[in-house]
Amino acid sequence: MMAAFADPPTPASKGGDMPLSDREFREIAALLYADSGIHLPDGKVSLVHSRLCKRLRVLGMESFRDYVALVSSASGALERRAMLSALTTNVTRFFREEHHFDDLAEQLRGGWAQKAKRGERLRFWSAACSSGEEPYSLALTLLGALPDAARYDVRILATDIDPMIVEKAREGVYPAASLEAVPSKLRERWTERRGGDFVIAEEARALISFRELNLMADWPMRGRFQAIFCRNVAIYFDAETQERLWGRFAPLLSPDGRLYIGHSERVGDRRYEPAGQTAYRLKGGLQ
User: Fold this and answer.
1) What residues are annotated to the active site?
2) 1 to each of 14, 61, 185, 237, how far by Cα in Å?
3) pLDDT digits (tens, 9 = 90+) for 108-131
4) What is the pTM of this model?
5) Structural domains present in the chain
């Protein structure tokens, strides 16, 4: 998933040598909302101060007033992206919310894999891929059901708003401890040890296209997806932004498709109906 906001154990945000005023916080929150749809409540002042003080030091700035002026200007576009990266923490792990991958495997065995073998296209989307554990879990599940997936028109799109985390995900290298949740058969077949780390096997990596994408911006995709994973993202949006996001997914979901969301999220859009634990399908779609 994309972003988590957990307050760090730091002094009060208005203390220290670079205080953050209420007005400056509101301006930063407004910029973040405009760029990403992420809503920063007033209780996150300490987090913003802690994260962005590091950026001020890197830039040699001495006040948040100057920083806000920079990121609000046309010349501050690169720093505004760095601000976004600083204010979003990527929290994820392999096979997180395992029931989604169990359901995905069931759908593959129940008909999706046969579609691929008949020459039909299969598409999957990890809409906030973070450092890659989610789309690689998707790829390993796919290969578990369809080991020769590379022979067919099967692809996974993995996107995130943060270009730095997308680049990390593309590398596909993880410490051994992070792969403990990967089923042993999949780990043994589709990963390779490199020193103290593991590398996702080329067969799995080749199924995935990693791209930078802002969920609030225009989307280039036009074809439909069998599954869209957008988990633990909408909780950082206000209600209006959440509903707009669910609505934008609907035309991109195949009639027999699944939308997988986080355990704290709900879809209110009437075009959807529940299809399992925190999974949805389009009403009237194929069962």
Assistant:
1) 51, 160
2) 30, 32, 25, 13
3) 999 999 999 999 999 999 999 999
4) 0.86
5) 22-87 (1.10.155.10), 98-282 (3.40.50.150)
